[in-house]
Amino acid sequence: MESADSIRSLYRHFLSAITAKSLNAFYYACSYAKIDCSVFINVTARLALHLVPTDLAAQPIFLCIDDTMVSKFGKKFEDVSKLFDHAAHNGSNYLNGHCFVSLMLCVPVWNRDRISYLAIPPGYRMWQKKESKLELASTMVRQVMPELSAQKNVIILCDSWYVKQNLVSVVDEYKNLDLIGNARADSVMYDLPPAPTGKKGRPAKRGRRLSIDSDFILSAEKVGDYYTGCRRVLTNIFGSREVMAYVTSTGKQNSTRRLFFSTVFPTQLQVFCAWQEKAPLNQTGSGWMSYIPLFLYSFRWNIEVSYYEQKSFWSLCAYMVRSRRGIEMLVNLINISYCAMKLLPYMEETLSQYRSVSVQEFRFVLSEQIRRQVFYVSLLQYIETHIKSMAVIKALRKLCLGETA
């Protein structure tokens, strides 16, 4: 379907033509069927990983984490509440609606002799006040990590909201898991421990406290779009683990500085840039190698693109079911359809020409073919006699195959 504004609309224009089930059966299935929609996360992740070619198995897999708001005018939806949204365009930073936490899996595929990353969102979970968004994100990461156990490097990408202890602690639970994230500019950082002096007493566990304004020397030229400085540090967020800290600024003087942390070091990713399609990764010279983890953070933008597409073209915000279980089920079913349109051109070689087109364009092509099939089946199903059906079949053969009468 090109759009599904509601279950009623979907039933009226499509489902009623292919099934004898009533409309209420689909409402019931969303709200009361004994299906754990969190299983969708594992199934989708497994399908996405099957697309990774053998010669790209050593390339890192990215796991983006973010949340999105869905505004609802009614107040009879379960768990609806007033939410703060810094990106709201309604004249206020608050909206009435739901918040969904989601994952985005980015897997490497070949595209014209370059490595291109295919972004697949495994699933959504609705946030409830009894559980923080950080705890919800941690649960989703733990759920999907068994599917990623065979991968060499899995890197979480997230903004400053998620670079906190609840999520960071998950990184220490898996040997192949790292994190690159934006952090609060006032995050406490320390220099590495000084060398032992030989004096009596316990050696220092960390050096002096660092400032993003005075202790990071920015590059002489812009690295990408920013002047950038980096160094190894210790921070309260990651405990005793050394991490790379990056500070970026649009100007040399009197410009706002942003802070990023990375648990993965450039030496672990040097081979990664050799065949990259994405600039500036494919232009990285020896002078820029230390900034590779910062460049990888740009892959997080894929999850924002997914939110825009699903909200604008896939009716993600148009649900009218009221129960929390029904809403979560319907949102994840819409997401499954979206993922299918992204996966199919890579899973079926006959559809490979649609790999470079937008997911909306491919959906339109596929929906046209499905509608034709439904029309032909319905037409033949309601032919009254064998004589009439043979006449229709001959006419269809002439139309479709160009046969002469």
In short:
The chain has 405 residues and is an alpha+beta fold.
Describe what you observe in this structure.
This protein has 405 residues and is an alpha+beta fold. The protein folds into 3 domains: 1-33, no CATH class; 35-181 and 231-238 and 257-356, no CATH class; 365-401, no CATH class. The chain has 10 helices and 11 strands. Strands 1, 2, 3, 4, 5, 6, 7, 8, 9, 10 and 11 form an 11-stranded mixed sheet that branches. The protein is elongated. The model has no long low-confidence stretch (mean pLDDT 85).
Summarize this structure as a short list of keywords or feature phrases.
10 helices, eleven-stranded mixed beta sheet
The mean pLDDT is 85
Alpha-beta classification? alpha+beta
Question: Unreliable stretches, pLDDT < 50, 5 or more residues?
Answer: none
Contiguous helical run count: 10
Secondary-structure element pattern, one letter each: HHHEEEEHEHEEEEEEHHHHH
Q: Calculate the terminal CA-CA distance, rounded to whole Å.
A: 35 Å
In which range does the helix fraction lie?
25-40%
Q: Mind telling me the C-alpha Rg?
A: 26 Å
What would you call the shape?
A: elongated
Q: Could you give the count of β-strands?
A: 11
The biggest beta sheet is recorded as: 11 strands, mixed
Strand coverage percent = 15-25%
What is the count of distinct domains? 3
